[in-house]
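Recall from the previous lesson that a structure prediction takes nothing but the amino acid sequence as input. Here we apply that procedure to Short-chain dehydrogenase from Marmoricola endophyticus. The sequence below is the only information supplied.
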Amino acid sequence: MSTTREHEHPGRVDGTLMAVDHPDLRGKVAVVTGAGKGMGARFSAALARRGVNVVGADIDTTLMSESATAVGLEHSDVEGAGVVVGAPVDVRDRDAQQKLAETAVREFGKVDLWINNAGIFPEAAATDIPVSQVQATLSINVEGVLYGAQAAASVMAPGGSIVNMASVAALRVRRGRAAYCSSKAAVAHLTECLAVEFGDLGIRVNAIAPGFVDTEMTRWVQDDPQALEAALGNIPLHRLGSPEEIVGPMLFLLSDSARYVTGTVLSVDGGSRHV
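The prediction returns the following tokens.
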């Protein structure tokens, strides 16, 4: 399927809202970390549009406040839309994540859904990775997921759903991203571990492993014609994904449509993990 934007910039697709809907999500309460921008903001908006009340959390409180306001304006004419309330969180801080869960319960009375989205994307040759990068990457990308899941489990009733953000980088090597790839591989396996233990609580835990998606994080590829050509050559569908194409699988994993799905790492990568 071609779009005007594809012709303007080969490999990109438009961000048209997907028709997918999950009526069972309406009236539920979600927490989304790293919701000030990027995919976290997209997840919050998509959930609110479908009647979910969201506590969006970010370490940048100003950015989070602006994002929550923007979602409110965007959905002002959507009947039955949920609201997004901004909250501060440093995902490296276990106590802060617990406070976030308590904030959601105080605001909306419960927590049904939790998306561990916050993360960083550092770069360095393997021979040059500094200690500070290793510590920051593991603490945010891995510990942040664990602490978020623990906080979610402490307030969720059976039937709750947690989704973590892994990456295709968990499944294949990306030069210059050893710390990042390792952290996302840890997230993938941590998801499986949590699914086994949280199953005793009636809580499902899954992860999404996106490939190259048209976001700020991949701008460096899109702005370099040679890098873009190389990237597209390693994607069987020969294009970047759109943020909306991550939203759809996320909604599925959160919803009752996936109520017998847990411990799964769902690749949404145009097939690039196979190349």
